[in-house]
Amino acid sequence: KHGHAKAKIIAVDIFNGTKHEILCPSHHNVNVPTVTRKDYPVMDIDDGYLVLLDGVKEKSDVKMPGGDLGEDLQSQFDDEKDILVTVISAMGKEQVIAIKSA
User: CA-based diameter of the chain, in Å?
Assistant: First the structure.
């Protein structure tokens, strides 16, 4: 009845799964991140970082994933299998979210 309409937005972080909540007037603009998803072949694993092939260039700034995903990736790499990793990027961060044999 009084005041402006408000919008409550709840979002889940794509990198760590935490929930974030914002309450703002409904007439305000809200920034939305641009999320990209791309598959890369794995060339090497060097000191906790993946060496990926991005077209004709090497990309070596993506960290090795932790947990079961990282263990699975390491074991497939040790078995000399061809591996593709799916990397999501947003707001200056990158993370491997899936692996598959090529």
Answer: 66
CB 12 within 8 Å of CB 18: yes
Averaged pLDDT, 21-42: 91
Q: How many CB atoms lie within 10 A of CB 14?
A: 15
Is the pLDDT at 53 greater than 90, yes or no?
yes
List Cβ<8 Å contacts ≥24 apart for 92-101: 93/15, 94/61, 94/62, 95/15, 95/62, 95/63, 95/65, 96/50, 96/62, 96/63, 96/64, 96/65, 96/69, 97/37, 98/69, 99/69, 99/72, 99/73, 101/76
Structural contact between residues 6 and 27, judged by C-beta atoms closer than 8 angstroms: no
Cα(4)–Cα(12) distance, integer angstroms: 26
Q: Work out the pLDDT band at 1, boundaries 50, 70, 90.
A: low
pLDDT higher at 65 or 3:
65
Residue with tokens 């909540």: 21
